[in-house]
Amino acid sequence: MAPGQFDDIVEKGKIVFCDADYEQDPYNSGAEGFVAMTTDPDDDAADSYTLPTALVTYDQAKELAQYLRDSPEPVAKIMKSEGVFDAEAPVVASFSSRGPNLLNPGILKVP
């Protein structure tokens, strides 16, 4: 979709579902939230969005699209996220600086 094409299809106060990252247009059109299909579910980059946003995998996007087609009045809600502290995590984000350094184990953490 080209910039501005959401203006005619977005109802103000609704959540927009899109198969690509068009977040700015729904925001400008008055949407309250945004659901987008991510092309790389293993990407752990920290992204920032203007609207409350949920990223879904291809399979989840197919299920959501089917629900939207089958439901006469589909309902959606994006919940506020919660921080989890003191939890054991088997994987850390690639941008984390948690040590030790793989090249030099003597370096515990790189700022």
From TrEMBL:
Keywords: Signal
Gene Ontology molecular function, alphabetical: serine-type endopeptidase activity
Any one of the GO BP annotations: proteolysis
Gene3D superfamilies in alphabetical order: 3.50.30.30, Peptidase S8/S53 domain
InterPro entries the record matches: Peptidase_S8/S53_dom_sf (IPR036852), SBT (IPR045051)
Family: Belongs to the peptidase S8 family.
PANTHER family: PROPROTEIN CONVERTASE SUBTILISIN/KEXIN (PTHR10795)
Protein name: Cucumisin
Source organism of the structure: Ananas comosus
